[in-house]
Fold:
Amino acid sequence: MTVEYINEQAHLIDFCQRIAHSSWLAVDTEFLREKTYYPQLCLIQVANDDYIACIDPLVLDDLNPILDIFYDPNVTVVFHAARQDLELFYLLRNSLPAPIFDTQLAATVLGYGEQIGYGNLVKMCLDVDLDKAHSRTDWTKRPLDPAQIDYAADDVRYLRDVYKLLSQELDQKNRRHWLDDDFAALTNNDSFKPEPETIWRKIKGAGRLKGVQLAVLQRLAAWREQRALQSNRPRRWIVKDDILIDLAKLAPDSLEKFTMVRGLENSVIERHGKRLLDEIKQAKTLPKEQWPILKKPQPLTHQQDAVVDALLALLRKLCDEQSIAPSAVATRKDIERLVSGEHDLPITQGWRNEIVGHHLQQFLNGKLSVTADTSQLYTHQQ
Structure:
């Protein structure tokens, strides 16, 4: 099938007219974000049963003809590992297309493995080895040569058949509804909105801070996030994470004391030093009741650790019966949180709860018992 490279508006409109009545479309994107806060959209690949196209957003004036189709509620947009692609569409329209289908999530509930890559899934489903020659391509460079375009087209060329195979298997195993919550979560607009006031929670090392140090980190991280958004520059280009942690620990109150912070470059002090001092000062004036709190789980007792081990054994048994990797359902940390009394967990929701979670809770509530012989575990309702 010939791949259409679309870099003229008339060609895009013609292509959109030809695919307008599709019930589904396989979609992928190429982007670059090494030097920016926001990803830069460089290419959109689209395919249905009849056409494959690579649409060039760097030279086209108006992407609305194809976006209108993606956002048509009668069209299922098929992705593999959809989140980064969806972020690009959110930035274009401040909303997300729906319905969607994510082949990576579908593969998880069908036993192909957790977070399986596109190439491996194509190999498993279609016995096709994908070319990796252009995996490091700079997609901002023009012109694109035919080999690059064909390489990009492979991301939707085989996605079509993978989608059909996985859809059929989901229906055969009656698991399509398992994905409803996961797909709904992916298309939740709120998950793509910047949250400067809470971004500090994602900074590695925040767990080592306490009290007013967390208040300082929150202010500094929020300022950096807003600065990154406004300038469209990566966070690390403004101030690195480890520097923010040290600033929160030491809370310098003068430019001279910035020398205590290892690795803080003079250029950063010259450019942002006064603002950093102001943010630190503002954080230190906050009343104690307004300091952020980072909840740390209480360590489990030895007996609770034994319960976790029992639940993990039950998890493995139940997942084996469904041919699903246990790690796709829950981690040890998830089980520890369950034993600690938490209930708002992935394992207590959706398909994970259906096949495993409610059984684990029955076990904890004394309504399910487990016995074993040398060959396997057995469960018994009480």
